[in-house]
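ingest -> validate -> predict -> emit
validate: passed (alphabet ok, no gaps, 495 aa)
predict: started
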Amino acid sequence: MDTALDARPADAAADDPAALARQVIDVMEQGVIAWSDDGRCLLFNARVWSMLEIDGTFLSHTTTRADFRARTLARGDITQDNLDQIERMTASAQPYAFDRTLPSGRVVLTTGRPMRDGGTVVTLTDVTDARRAQADLARAKLAAEDAERRTRDILAQERTRQAEARRLAELNEWLQSCKSLDELYMVVERFMPLLLPGAKGELYIYSNSRDALDGQVKWNTAHLHPTIAADSCWALRRGHSYQHRDGGLCLPCDHVTAHGHTSRLREYICVPIVAHGDTVGLLHIRFDPDSDHGIDALEEFAMRCGEQISMAIANAKLRDELRDQSIRDPLTGLYNRRYFLDALRRQVSVSGRRGTDFGLVSLDVDHFKTFNDNHGHDAGDAALRAIGTWLSDALGSGEIPCRYGGEEFVVLAPDAGADQVQALAERIRDGIAGLRVTYLRETLPRVTVSCGVASFPANGLATGQLLREADSALYAAKGAGRNAVRIAVPRAPPP
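emit:
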């Protein structure tokens, strides 16, 4: 078996520089191999064998460079790319360096440097610990970058949630400040394009008959049905929100296909508007899947918007119902005394500022106590309901009919002069006299009314004074034989 370098006495090495050089090379921590220009092994130190985990059969003074490279390639120390690089750089007398991985897993840095005579000196350095530290550092860097990326994502998501919460809070504040459903619909129309940019939507509310939903609000679209059937939406039929996604097992809603969209709708959601356990409407939102505002990005936020709108609509309906109960007469459906007095005070103030006229018609059912005694109170209620229905249907939108109490009614006629109010009273008297009231399949006797008319400002400038004048005219009509109209005498102007 060949040895790397011959051992010689120290004094001999001191006299021979070449021998000294060989001893220095032999004790180096690195492995060293010198190849001649024609590929012969000029020298190598003993460290090469331990560094490359080989023996003299793998590398000796008779081993050629080509054989050595072929053996290292066959053993898997180097790759074909490494070999091609080595041969290319050697041929052009260029230095090269690469890592080789030994069968034990150790990593050896192989560096080749050209010599002046055309040969190459190859040094072999164990860099296993260094490469492991580099790998650990790289993994730590990647882990740190990944943690930083996750932190940024979490912070971005948190900022998005906070922004959504602020926008929802602002929406809720506006919704809760609405005095009517019309104001609420206006807020929804203004806010939804800001809350869900890029999305298009429609809001439908159940009609009083509960057999259809009326279109109330749209945003970012021209499509809004006047009405849709309750069974035209999968969300309403299934009782929970419905997501239509591109490529999923989804069926389009009839109210969507009825729009006749020129392009296929790929992503939309339908959210039932539910409050206090009752479904009051439907929120339909269409998304653009090719933008950053697709269903995956906005679905959860859209659902939360639907919840806010649901509660606001329910509260508005409840307020309307309570207000309606407080100002409506439950028997006739007309406004009650409380509402009339408020309306009369407002009208006095408005007409006083503008200098316009208005009138009152006070009417009372003739002989109503006798009617009740002869036919019963239920029949009397039927007669009062019939009068209330006629007043609601026959009077104009500006005239306000009210049930003042018992069998007494009053009509407020804004912006009407004395002659117009008198004509209105005659029309009321004549219309009610022509009513045919049926109770328990029997036609009740005809009912008539007596009417008293008072005008502002001719009969007074205060609400109490006007009511007294109208009542005085009413009593005059009753004294004249009933089923008659009498006008209050104008008051003389103050001196």
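The longest helix spans residues 128-177.
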